[in-house]
Amino acid sequence: MTLSSDWDNEPYVELYLVQKVLNLVVPLDSYSSKWIPQFKIKIPHKKSSDKVDYFIEDSSKNIKFLVEVKTAKTRINNATARQQLDKYLRYSGVRFGILIDPFLVEIYHFKKGQTKLKSQFDIKDITDIKSIAEFIKTFFLESIKMRSIAIHNSKGGVGKTTLAINIAYELSKRGNKVLVVDLDDQANASLTIGVNKAKEINNASTPEEHKKIYKFLDERLEVINFIKFVNKAGEIEDYRNCIVSSKSIENLFGVDVLPASHKTTENELPSGPTVLRYLDMGLIKFVEDYQYVIFDTAPGSNALTWCGFYAAQYLVIPSQMEYLSVYGIRHVIRNAEEVQKDSNGQRSNILGIVPMMVDGKNLNKTVEEFVRDSFPDIPILPAIKRATGVGKASHENIPMSQFAEKDKESPKTSKEVAESLKTLTTRLVEKIEEFECKNG
Ligand SMILES: Nc1ncnc2c1ncn2[C@@H]1O[C@H](COP(=O)(O)OP(=O)(O)OP(=O)(O)O)[C@@H](O)[C@H]1O
Ligand SMILES: [Mg+2]
């Protein structure tokens, strides 16, 4: 392919090739997409930041990558361009990078401290923007992953459900498709999100109305049936029938739910040596449907909690900063380590401890220090303050940040808690990315 000298000019290559291709991969007009040209990357021991040509993100698909552009003259097929990209990936925390010039596209993956070429595409016809974009899209579609996080502490009432449903909401608000899996027969997550007819039960005035609601709950498929379908080698539709879609109910959380009720008990689990992995095996069928799966667990450590441990890549431990709660943490860590070992480091990796319901008392601070000393390898994540709004939000079946917007009684504390839930969610996503960067 011979090209005019225009293609020796970088702004020309960007305008007539790169931006056109990128717009097909991550369209700029989508609410979840972000393009940052001349994206700054801080290189250690260097005074000024380096700049990569583009940072591109599609938050709804967990896709993030850097793009470095060269011209027909400067080309990407040389050590300089590749070393440059290696440096950008190494210090930006972004895992994927694309090198592009008018003849060639290369996709690189930064994994376990090394930048590796994943695939290459020869541009035969520079006007065929669609084929170039298809190549890039296919690669990223393949690399899209479902991330799963269990929220657990064996102690009751520490804020597990509160965290699970609010983190799920924050993730969904950022454009992710989220599934909440309720593994607690108290079914607080299902009730609060609104899939267990809490309002109807409250409003029902006659025994007949109550009977009708309970009949519905008795007959409905839920998480326990989902697990049983693995045992019976069910069809994908069987599994899907257990999930309550966010579209099918008035659901202000915007998430799908694999609900629980009084029926979700460990006694209902099928028997067999691998039963604790059934939930994981079932959920793997949905990797393309969800970006995040959040498990709410029951207090204690029953077999359903273990199913959650074996299905979740990551674990978050909420705990009040009181001495008794800290002993609960020790127990959870021990169980998680067992699963990590058993799954080759693929499941129950602990992202951190979330101090819950803190109120600025000295005791909170002393215990936090004690936690830091006791578990030096486990990060302490952003804390969530005590606020009366939290209970009220659950009661009204709405996420905390929506409640904070309309709270007239203590708007300041409600807003503070809503803000820290957002910050916590951002921190969790960052931690997951750090983990994926290190472990591939
Ligand atoms: N930051 C907070 N401020 C005030 N109250 C809170 C806060 N977080 C949670 N709560 C309240 O504490 C109670 C227990 O919270 P939650 O149900 O989330 O805990 P849990 O660990 O899921 O409990 P269980 O072990 O019973 O499942 C609820 O009434 C909830 O509204
Ligand atoms: Mg709970």
Task: Give the helices and strands, then pairings.
Blueprint: H1 10-25, E1 33-41, E2 50-58, E3 63-69, H2 79-92, E4 96-100, E5 104-111, E6 114-122, H3 129-143, E7 147-151, H4 160-173, E8 178-183, H5 188-193, H6 198-203, H7 207-219, H8 223-231, H9 236-240, E9 256-258, H10 278-283, E10 292-297, H11 303-311, E11 314-320, H12 323-342, E12 349-358, H13 362-374, E13 384-385, H14 388-395, H15 400-406, H16 411-439
Helix pairs in contact: 1-3, 4-16, 14-15, 15-16
Bound molecules: adenosine-5'-triphosphate and magnesium ion (MG).
Descriptive report:
The structure is a single chain. With 440 residues, the protein is an alpha/beta fold. The protein folds into two domains: 5-143, Alpha-Beta Complex (tt1808, chain A); 146-439, Rossmann fold, CATH 3.40.50.300. The protein has 16 helices and 13 strands. Strand 3 (63-69), helix 2 (79-92) and strand 4 form a beta-alpha-beta unit. Helix 1 (10-25) crosses helix 3 and helix 14 (388-395) crosses helix 15 (400-406). The radius of gyration is 24 Å and the shape is globular. The mean pLDDT is 91. Adenosine-5'-triphosphate (ATP) binds at residues 156-162, 184, 186, 188, 299, 356-357, 384, 386-387, 390-391, 394, 417.
